[in-house]
Amino acid sequence: MQDGSTSQTSSTSSPLGAAYLPSGIRPSNFIKIHREGQDISGTFVIDRKMKFPNERGFHLTLISGSGAVEADVFCVPPSTLETPIKDRTAINISSGRISINLHRPQIEEGHYPVYLLIAGAQNSASRLSLPRSFKGSAYLGCTGNNVTFSPDVLANFTLFSEVDGVTKGFIGDFDHTQWKTDSQWAGDVLHWAPMNKVSSTLALRYDDEDL
Question: How many domains does the chain have?
Fold first, then answer.
């Protein structure tokens, strides 16, 4: 996997980190799959530069109701560091059992942030793998005892609060000077909101480590 450094792309028009993308999977955008009570599995490559008529909202939506969702999601980075994507790639997952591996090459911070919304059904069990480049706020809709962090994620997690069954914190190198009282966080966001805070569980790790 290449890290998408400038030296690798200065003489080509290929996207930064393009070598990390899976072969045989064509990129798309604004993908919506809704299979109520049925499992959804697959590999998805999201290219924010692709435009479709009358398409807005989440760039990837996978909904299975009481079924399971298992997906590898790759984000296509911008073509050059001079053309960053500042608004977030929005991903919405809703299912009874969820296993998501989110992949993104390590390039300059903040160039294509991600908003990941995971909404589980009753008694949902979620497993989420984040890229090492993830840096942002985390809203975890359950008590701390129901969240399992891998050693590396735990070492990079800053706890803000744990109140009324909701854990809030920050994943990545937290710099308080980047937060201003009159503005919202502009980087990555993880929002996990199960229907049942008591019985739902979440396991968090990086995409290159075991849990």
Answer: 1
| Boundaries of domain holding 187 | 6-206
Give phi and psi for 167, each to the nearest 5: -105, 130
Q: Is the pLDDT of residue 59 over 70?
A: yes
Q: Looking at the domain assignment, is residue 1 inside a domain? A: no
Whose tokens are 């997690």? That residue is: 157
Token pair 């500042």 is at which residue?
86
Whole-angstrom Cα distance, residue 27 to residue 173? Answer: 30
Residue 93 lies in a domain: yes
Question: Full-prediction pTM beyond 0.85?
Answer: no
Evaluate the CA torsion angle 135, 139, 142, 145 in order and state its sign.
positive
Residue 150's Cβ-count burial label (10 Å; 0-12, 13-18, 19+) is: middle
Rounded CA separation 181/185 (Å): 10
pLDDT digits (tens, 9 = 90+) for 131-180: 988 998 999 987 667 889 999 999 999 999 988 888 999 999 887 766 66
Asked if residues 127 and 98 have their Cβ atoms less than 8 Å apart, the reply is: yes
- Angle at CA of residue 209, ends 205 and 210, nearest 5°: 85
Q: Is 122 exposed, middle or buried (0-12, 13-18, 19+ CB in 10 A)?
A: exposed
Domain-embedded: residue 100: yes
29 occurs within a structural domain = yes
Distance CA 169, CA 147 (A): 12
